[in-house]
Amino acid sequence: MQFGRSYEEFEVGATYKHWPGKTVTEYDDHLFCLLTMNHHPLHLDVNYATETTQFGKNVVVGNYVYSILLGMSVADVSGKAIANLEVESLRHVAPTFHGDTIYGETTVLDKTESKSKDDRGVVYVETIGYNQDGTIVCIFRRKVMVPKNSYLEARGGEQPGRPVPRPDKNWRGAAD
């Protein structure tokens, strides 16, 4: 399974469709709101949302939708990142409701080699999130510093820091 990409693997114009989608439950939304101390009744109070909002039901908090999409993109985009440098823009263009399933895809807009270190570069991407009907709900652009292959090779390859299992009484490994 791929976990992120090196600088050389990104191509301007490429689109990565993140899989699987995530169905947002009321529990997910409420827990995120409580963990982040966003107690707005639009997200937590069914009566309030039913009686006083244009949607007539709770709306999923936008930062949770963004977080889902950002997380979905890690395996395809930033799994090898040295740093997330910037979220240039973030727009919530349609509401997400409990029971909606969010899907995402990321397009590479540009990439530039680092001017100060020759073992990395910056990738500029746009991620869109849409629901089960194809309605786009969230769009954001970000810049990610990613390693070149030389950086990865100098630090242990594809899975740097991964330990080697040691044979013991429960597992003899290659000792047999």
From TrEMBL:
It comes from the Bacteria. Residues 153-176 are annotated as: Disordered. CDD domains: FkbR2. InterPro entries: HotDog_dom_sf, MC_hydratase, MCH/BMMD. Residues 165-176 have a biased composition (Basic and acidic residues). The lineage of its organism: Bacteria, Bacillati, Actinomycetota, Actinomycetes, Propionibacteriales. Pfam families: MC_hydratase. SUPFAM superfamilies: Thioesterase/thiol ester dehydrase-isomerase (SSF54637). This is MaoC family dehydratase.
